[in-house]
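step: validate -> pass
step: tokenize input -> pass
step: predict -> running
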Amino acid sequence: MTETRLKPLDVSATVNHFLSLAGEENWSAFDEKVIEVSNRPEMIGWLPSGFKDERINVRDLAISISEKTSQKLDEKINQKLVELLISDPNTHLRRKAAIALFVKGNRSPQIKLALEDAMTNDDELRDQVSALLKSS
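step: predict -> pass
step: emit ->
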């Protein structure tokens, strides 16, 4: 049996590609690419720096990868998601952090309140949150 090895991923080029897609508002390609890279160790290793980037689209990317990866996230990454949930200046990203935490198993009252807020006040996330809550 032959093992398929992936080429090392250039994280900087990958992030720049995502920023380009976001700039074009090509969200379907953005979402497809997130799924494609979400289990790559290079991207998981990049998450802490992505969470603290000043650019909204970079933080959005880090949250999206956290949500979509099938890998178990370590406590440090989960804590960074909680910090984003509490203090990110962008309301939409705070709600997305709640979704990522919920997907990873966090069912705290704080997460549930944030999801209820997203259901009520965020048209872009309403359907996703509704589906998550129905499936849990």
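step: describe -> Residues 35 and 68 are 6 Å apart (CA to CA).
step: cleanup -> pass
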